[in-house]
Design brief:
The structure holds 2 protein chains of 2 kinds. Chain A is globular and about 60 Å long. In chain A, a hairpin with a 2-residue loop joins strand 1 and strand 2. By secondary structure, chain A is α+β, with helices and mostly antiparallel strands. Chain A is about 30% helix and about 30% strand. The termini of chain A are far apart. In chain A, helix 6 crosses helix 8. Chain A has 2 domains: about 90 residues, no CATH class; about 190 residues, no CATH class. Chain B is of the alpha+beta class. Helix content of chain B is about 55%, strand content about 5%. Chain B contains 16 helices and 7 strands. In chain B, helix 3 packs across helix 4. The longest helix of chain B has about 35 residues. In chain B, about 40% of the residues are buried. Classes of the chains: A alpha+beta, B alpha+beta.
Chain lengths: ~300, ~375
């Protein structure tokens, strides 16, 4: 099959993807057919190729490689894992270059034009919680790569396939039997991975930014009752700064942006185990009129 | 010449660029680590209005990263210097570190991945032990062959890095390997070195202007992959223009110094490369003199081709032949060591596996 090229919008970034791998292209269009750019020349941020290296490995236990700017930054991956490799690769491109943004290791979810930031280290359940909230009608900005534009203090949307890992996959299926999931990747470097397709409405509104309004630090704890507690602002600052990929790199700009976010939002910690109850509780938070919420000073 | 070279020659050319050209430009500039340099050229020539917005974002993002690595490098330099000062070991900042520390023009945009330092040869062992005592560790694993390669044949010891901060520190005692065709008397370099203030007001010693350019030239001449090559060529052009602006006699001084240090040939290659690929315009008189150190015409033509091939990033739709890579590799080793030594070195390296790619996808978000 000859090389085909798709041009997609991943939030503010325009990405060209070339590949001759039919299975990969099918998966890519399953997830992102609603954000494919129309005809006409497009300036690209990232021009990526997913290719089969020219070696014996073309036929025996086939592999694929990720290429951008003439370099191949990663080891080849098994061909069947082309899609997760593409997703990680694009994240790497963004993380190493998009310093116009403050990059938060956080799920970001919008209710109208107000956003909830869910920062957390891997295992905290932020991806799963973001997935569940988006399945209940909230707008997905990002599942774990929150982009904040320091000059406007807006959160920018970048809805992507949400990589559910291991036990999260069944948890989401149990939560919503109609959830649209892509292929299962049983053996990746992060274990078993299956992506939730970003919903159409979120993709259609990916140019619409949102203003940070709630900051919730989730912590998944099996078997525990849900518990939402106000969090001290100084502690919230510390934890949000810790969850910012390019905090040190942006220096004083990042300090001011994190301080500004923390000043304008309500801060909580949230322990959860059951997704239904967790989603109900977080959605209830967004209905409480301002002023009756946690101390904003 | 590719699109990036055309731009470096004549920045206003971008007024005529279509989308397809911008899409070729960004990967080339990113690969060559020249995004920051390009941003400055756009600003200097008042061309920012012609640059697509998302490319401006990429350029500004890259510049933020550059500022950060510059701060890290200066901080590491001060840490090393503090330790060496205590033992009264003098040191000279080289290459990127020198440009940034002495606020020379490349400081506006130049990233750096390590810091390069020159210490007197008799002190280099002592310097290494001193740093190891205060928390610096070998940067990577070096087997006994690598140790022997560095210590007996090269002009540097195996790179170090501080166990917490992680910036690589390369300690040199000369600008070229002592076994190479270019043998520079390091005492002459020390004699012309100058002291300046770094951005925080601390004293920093750097090479004299001519020596700084000759170091850049020797580096280009010796480097096998020409990795970072085009960036070094652009450094050469920027520094050359800066020093010439400061002192109209600079070309003459550079020529004389090149002859004194035995670097006429590398200077020829550096000047001709900067002229062809980065838009340097030296005076005709200077060019005449530089060309006296050129190799015979066919060799000069072959080298021009090799350098241009070597400086073009692979796989970006540019012609770059495997033959050129091979020839450059052999040539860089040929000038670096005598034949017997070269044979042993290549045989040994032939048995070793290739380098791993730098990034592990398990660390990435997703």
């Amino acid at each position: 099959m000859p090389n085909q090229r798709l041009i997609l919008d991943a939030g503010p970034f325009r990405v060209g993807v070339r590949s001759s791998d039919a299975a990969f292209l099918d998966t890519l269009s399953y997830f992102y057919r609603d954000s494919v750019c129309g005809d006409g020349p497009h300036v690209l941020d990232y021009d990526i190729e997913i290719l089969r290296p020219r070696s014996l490995r073309r036929w025996v236990r086939a592999q694929v490689q990720f290429e951008i700017d003439g370099i191949r930054p990663f080891d080849p991956h098994p061909a069947e894992n082309a899609f997760p490799m593409y997703e990680w690769g694009l994240n790497w491109c963004i993380a190493t270059s998009a310093h116009r943004y403050m990059m938060l290791h956080a799920g970001t979810i919008a209710f109208g034009d107000l956003a909830m930031i869910l920062p957390g280290t891997p295992g905290s359940g932020k991806s799963t919680l973001s997935a569940a909230l988006s399945l209940r009608g909230a707008r997905l900005l990002s599942d774990e790569f929150g982009l904040l534009r320091p000059d406007s203090m807006d959160l920018v949307a970048m809805p992507r396939g949400i990589p559910l890992k291991n036990a999260s996959i069944d948890a989401i299926i149990e939560f919503d039997g109609a959830a649209q999931l892509g292929p299962t990747y049983p053996k990746t470097r992060k274990g078993k991975v299956r992506h939730l397709r970003p919903d159409r409405a979120s993709l259609a509104q990916q140019c619409r930014p949102a203003v940070p309004h709630w900051l919730v630090f989730p912590k998944y704890r099996a078997g525990e009752q849900e518990s939402l507690k106000p969090l001290d602002k100084a502690e919230a600052f510390r934890q949000l700064a810790f969850n910012c990929f390019n905090y040190k790199l942006l220096g004083a700009g990042a300090f001011r942006a994190v301080a500004q976010v923390v000043r304008q939002v309500d801060c909580y910690t949230f322990t959860f185990s059951n997704l239904d109850r967790a989603v109900a509780q977080l959605k209830a938070l967004t209905h409480v009129p301002s002023g009756q919420q946690a101390d904003r000073k | 010449m590719n699109l990036l070279n055309e731009f470096l020659h004549d920045p206003p050319i971008v007024r005529q660029w279509d989308v397809e050209r911008w899409n070729r430009f960004l990967p080339l500039a990113r690969n060559a680590r020249l995004l920051g340099r390009c941003l400055y050229l756009f600003e200097q020539h008042e061309l920012l209005d012609c640059v697509p917005g998302r490319i401006v974002d990429q350029l500004r993002g890259a510049l933020a990263q550059t500022r950060y690595v510059q701060i890290q490098a200066l901080r590491e330099f001060r840490q090393v210097k503090r330790k060496l000062d205590r033992e009264a070991i003098p040191l000279i900042a080289l290459k990127g570190l020198a440009y940034v520390a002495a606020s020379l023009p490349p400081a506006h945009w130049r990233g750096l991945s390590d810091i390069d330092l020159l210490v007197p040869e008799p002190d280099i062992g002592r310097t290494e032990r001193l740093l190891m005592r205060f928390g610096w560790i070998p940067s990577g694993t070096f087997d006994s062959y690598d140790q022997h390669y560095y210590r007996d044949w090269m002009h540097e010891v195996p790179p170090l890095r501080h166990h917490v901060r992680g910036v690589e520190v390369d300690l040199h005692h000369n600008l070229a390997p002592p076994v190479s065709r270019i043998r520079i008397d390091a005492d002459l370099l020390w004699g012309r070195s100058i002291e300046q203030s770094d951005p925080s007001g601390q004293p920093v010693r750097i090479l004299g202007p001519a020596d700084m350019l000759l170091h850049n030239a020797v580096h280009l001449f010796m480097n096998d992959e020409l990795r970072g090559g085009l960036r070094d060529v652009v450094d050469f052009r920027d520094l050359f223009e800066h020093f010439l602006h400061q002192d109209p006699e600079f070309e003459q001084q550079l020529m004389v110094r090149a002859r004194d240090l035995g670097c006429g040939r590398p200077l020829y290659y550096a000047v001709s490369s900067a002229q062809r690929l980065a838009g340097l315009h030296p005076s005709a008189g200077f060019l005449d003199q530089v060309e006296r150190d050129a190799p015979p015409y066919p060799v000069a033509r072959l080298m021009a081709w090799l350098i241009e091939q070597g400086l073009s990033p692979p796989r970006l739709g540019l012609r770059r032949s495997a033959l050129a890579d091979r020839l450059l590799f052999v040539r860089s080793h040929w000038v670096r060591m005598p034949p017997g030594m070269l044979l042993r070195h290549l045989l040994h390296k032939g048995f070793k596996s290739q380098k791993k790619p730098p990034v592990n996808t398990a660390d990435l978000p997703g």
